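Appendix B, Record 12. Input sequence as logged:
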Amino acid sequence: MKSRLNRRSFIKRTALAAGVWSTANYFPGPNILAATGTIDKLNCVQVGCGGRAMHHLSEVIGTLGQNLYAIVEPDERKHATVKKWLKSHNGDADKLQVFTDYRVMFDKIGKDVDAVFVTTPNHHHAKVAMMAMEAGKNVYCEKPVCHDISEARMLREAAHKYSKVATQMGNQGHCDDGYRSLCEYIWSGVIGNITETHSWTDRANGGVGPRPPSIPAPAGMDWDKWIGPAPYRDFHTDLHPHEWHGWYDFGNGSIGNMACHIMDGVFWALKIEHPTSMEIEYLRGGSDERYPTGSTIRWDVPARADMPALKVYWHEGLNATTTTQASGALHAAVGDARNLPPLLLDFVKKYPEEKLAHGDGGTLYVGEKGVISTGTYGENMHVVPFAKMKEMPTPPKTLPRFPKGIFANFVEICRAGRTDTAVPFEYGTRLTEFALLGNLAQRAGEGKKVEWDGPNMKVTSLPELNQWVKRPYRKGWEI
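Logged structural output:
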């Protein structure tokens, strides 16, 4: 470990002097790229090899040329998938180290690792990220960066403690121009004070009814390792590989799946810290173990230094689709559409050419002088209507841009031995905590105000909810 740190310190100086970095061949080769004087390829570990992981591999290993040193995945079928991908990209799959338990991985090869990429189900996020930081390893973790509110606090404290480690939450929209332009427009006052926002998603990561009956885990699946820190249960349908989002023990519902993307602009541009309360205004589906299939949640945010009190709305599981017509107008499908934002529907009818409703998600920012619209990841940011925006002066660009994207940002920072990523845990944990407060409101039920003491991380109106702020861990998986 010491030799890698010493080498990194040296290369950091030469890299900064050169001001460039290379994306040469991305499988084992020379440690130092002498021609450029930049840092060598990162030894990367991919923890979790389903779904989003393949995008990580494509970007970090394929496009950015880093070294896939090891993978961690309890489902052995995914081992074969990754090795096949590696061979198709001229990699040496025989040298790839494979684990089913990241605790074992850190023990055996941790000293040789430079960066850990986490794409596990949410209930593992905090454990992997914490172990990485404690081992002095750079860590990139998909959103939400953790499963529980208490974990957000622990990870933020750890990021401060291990301040030489680069951290990044996977929130690609935060690196793109849309949300950065949004901040500049809002901070310049073009639509005046904002007192209300509406964010929506068509995702319905929840369910109804009892837990399905137990069945044997798939061949090659180390089910105990998949369960990890969560309460043990036998394998059943409607859980793996993706449906875990809808179960309290493993995911965070539609909020966990999409809120850190869709509400990023709300939290950032409107300088939110702690809300005073949250409340469910509409609820559909759900059970003692499952998240709802649809809900409308309101966060009450107090006045900040230069901004008035704010009501933040989240509308999920809209039972809605996007038409194939050029207008892209949102319309209610068969089912209960009470949680469709009326303001959105009004704008769709008034400005069909705006393509405000993209079906999958977006946000409206309601100001005294107008309304701004953004898509799921901040794209298509504009004052409504476009014609009004064209008449306004464009605010100066005061925020940095990252045209190469979030993965390139993280790799550049790690290779330079720096920590100033675009979405560090300092920010990502705060955004995650704000979003996950919506889960507490969902557990409380419709019409019950959840009063929140943010500084002390405690529900004051319904103290029984505090059991969900911090969960117990299975023995051997404590954080």
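The longest strand covers residues 194-201.
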